[in-house]
Amino acid sequence: IKVQLKFSILCCFALFTCFLDAVWGQIRYSIPEELEHGAFVGNIAEDLGLDLDKLSARRFRIVSGAKKQYVEVNLENGVLFVNERIDREELCEQSLSCSFHLQVVIENPLELYRVEMEILDVNDNSPSFPWTEFNLDISESAAPGSRFPLESAQDLDVGSNSLRTYLLSVNEHFLLDIQTRSDGSKFAELVLQNPLDREQQSAHQMVLTAVDGGAPERSGTAQIDITVLDANDNAPVFDQSFYRVRLAENAPKGTVVIKLNASDLDEGPNADITYSFSGHAPIKVRQLFSVDSRTGEIKVKGVIDYEKARMHEIYVQAKDKGPSAVAVHCKVLVNVLDKNDNLPEVILTSVSTPVQEDAPPGTVIAVISVMDKDSGENGNVDCEIPHQIPFQLHSSFKNYYTLVTSDFLDRETVGEYNITLTARDMGSPPLFTRKTILVQVSDVNDNAPHFKQPSYTVYLTENNAPGASICSVAALDPDSGQNAYLSYSILDGDIQGMPVSTYVSINSDNGNIYALRSFDHEQLKNFQVTVQAQDAGFPPLKNNVSVNIFILDQNDNAPVIVSPLPHNDTAPSEAVPRSVDPGYLVTRISAVDADAGQNSRLFYQMLQATDPSLFSVALYTGEIRTIRQLMEKDPTRHRLVILVKDNGQPPLSATVSIILSVVDSLPDSQPDLGDLSLSPHHSSNLTLYLIVSLGAISFTFLVAIIVLVAVRRLKVRASNRDTGALPQVYCYKMCLTPESSKSDFMFLKPCSPVLSVQQNNAKSTDYLTSGWSALDRNELSNNRAATPNEVTHVITTGSLCRNNLLIQTEIYAHVTGCKLSLQEGTAPNYSWTPKYTQPHSEPPDYQHNVYIPGTTSGYSTLKLAPRGELDVYNTFSTFGKKKRFISNYEQPFDKDDALISNAIFK
């Protein structure tokens, strides 16, 4: 009853006893060996105070350092159960204490627990003898008290379940003496109690029983056969009955552990000694060592492993070869010395990868456990990682480490890390193990797109095909995945009052920009769009770049003749006096081209002529001059066809026909106008007036001029009605300065017109066209330059020249002449027509296209005044600029442009 009660208590304790060890934060379970699969160990979730509903979500798992997964956890109820049958003898061999460790890993947040599993022994092994029958030879001369060691029984169980005692069957000569070894194991010796008499009984048989201490107990038996021998007087003797030696583990096979020596005083065969293991030597010792029967040397036979057994007891007997030989015994204690022969083991119990590049320092990347089977310093392990990486290794428990970040990561700099972990023991020499941990860095949208260029400049020829690709922009984003996927767009804006989306579009995937319309250089010379690149990250990042698009000119506009213009679909006509000298300026052909650059550079040539030997046209200026003097036999009417051609490729052209009539003389010269001359007082007042006006003019100047013109006209008309005479007036031509493209400011230049007098015309006619004024042949008379004292009343027509088309450095300005008529009894009217006096041989400049007041009229019979003589007519309004004049206004001349007609200044 007591045995059964003890066994029941032990089983209950083994199955249900568990306790929490507060030290180091670990728990410990004790279970018996040989439990079946699914056997209950304990509710680890309750023991750790964990929420059952979160075990799976937090990736609750058990990591074992053993080769087999002996236990497992049911994540639904938190029960720890036996996963595989545990054989304590296989796991721990003969160790009194048998346990293994588990590590519980829980994530989100990371928690670590250490679990120790103690395996309790179960009496599942019976004691057994190496042989079922032992033979002993005992001399009849053996004295009572003689001892004869018996083979020991082996029991794989430990503790109370191991071998407890031996029993000997009843006999009258022998009894059993049970002794205990240093490790607690027991062995038996047969003691001769009464002398033997071979003659009375030559053999004895007994049964030896080995009994363990289990409940219920187990036993094993062996038969002892004793043969009584004839007497041998002297037995061998060892130098000492106990030997102690040291042996390093992993000693090579054949290494001599010790050489035993026994002596026998007998002679001959009775002194010839043989050595062997005694019956007390365990089987494992016989597997690891061998005894030379002749020399008594004990040698290494197997692998000596300190981690399996730190000490071995070898029992050796010596026996002579004489009759009735008696064996003597000795014990050799072999202490195994540990060597650093085991590499540290590295186990990655948990790895969290990839890790985001914006993870804060201290983020746990991996949980690492290390172990070393060696002992002492040979089993102490230290771990390290390289110092040049943003990671650190922290020690949590003994031989447990966590790999954490020590700094912020940047995936664009390093996308992944191969971290080499080195585990090194403290042995001499030290052994180490290296393990590589791959840590990948996941991307965060922390980089905005950036364009390959700070800005883009595109040159596009006008008249392009709508829908054609004009350029491509490209941006880069060092991020990856969606964070690096870029889309392109054009920001809203206006171009000439129209949305930019009506001009260009962009492919959102590749950045190709397309023209949505055909561009015209004459309408739009350049424009700018802003392209935005945005990634697909969250939140998205973006960047802008400017794209400057310049429209290049094509030669798509033919020259346009602006002077002279046909009247009622008839060719314009000019009168030429028969008495003119060679080089006389007859007229000038003026044309403009809406194109730019070389495409607007014009050339003039004579295409047809009634008499090619009489007239010529200047290549660059379009001036028509006489080649020779006119003769009586020359025709009185000439038709000229002038070709105007630009410098484009291919060139475009226009033609104009002009009729020249040869007359004997021009109309009579103008009357003496000395009374109309400008007095110094008036000139001084005019200069002062101009200075004051120029200082006060603003962007409303044009309106003021128009109002002033209207007021002056009313005054003139009223004066004409009251006095019948014209007031004294001045004629000014308005020209734009080179800076006029930036401002509406204008300069006024006084004109000293050349007047022609007509006696019969009673009406003043204003010509507001952009060409030359056409004069009736009957009204023409000889022209001469009027002096200041000859002018009493002047009415002029001024025009504001606006030309916005830049033709390299040449400026085509167009002047409108003023025609005045004088009739008896009324206010004198004078008509004048500007002519050009630039010599044909000089290179063209702005004076070819602009009439300079104060120069000789083309109708005058006087010689052409040299350039120096013209300077006397320059006034303050020229600002001392006597060189070439360059204007920024480039648009083609339009007769509807703001012409200021009949500008009359008193």
TrEMBL record:
Transmembrane segments: 686-711
UniProt keyword Calcium, yes or no: yes
PROSITE patterns: CADHERIN_1, CADHERIN_2
Record localization: Cell membrane
Domain of life: Eukaryota
GO MF term list: calcium ion binding
Keyword Glycoprotein among UniProt keywords: yes
Domain Cadherin: residue ranges: 30-129, 130-238, 239-346, 347-451, 452-561, 568-673
GO annotation terms (biological process): anatomical structure morphogenesis; homophilic cell adhesion via plasma membrane adhesion molecules
Cleavable signal peptide: 1-25
Any one GO CC term of the record: plasma membrane
Membrane topology: Single-pass type I membrane protein
Assigned keywords, A-Z: Calcium, Cell adhesion, Cell membrane, Glycoprotein, Membrane, Repeat, Signal, Transmembrane, Transmembrane helix
Protein name: Protocadherin gamma-C3
Native organism: Seriola dumerili
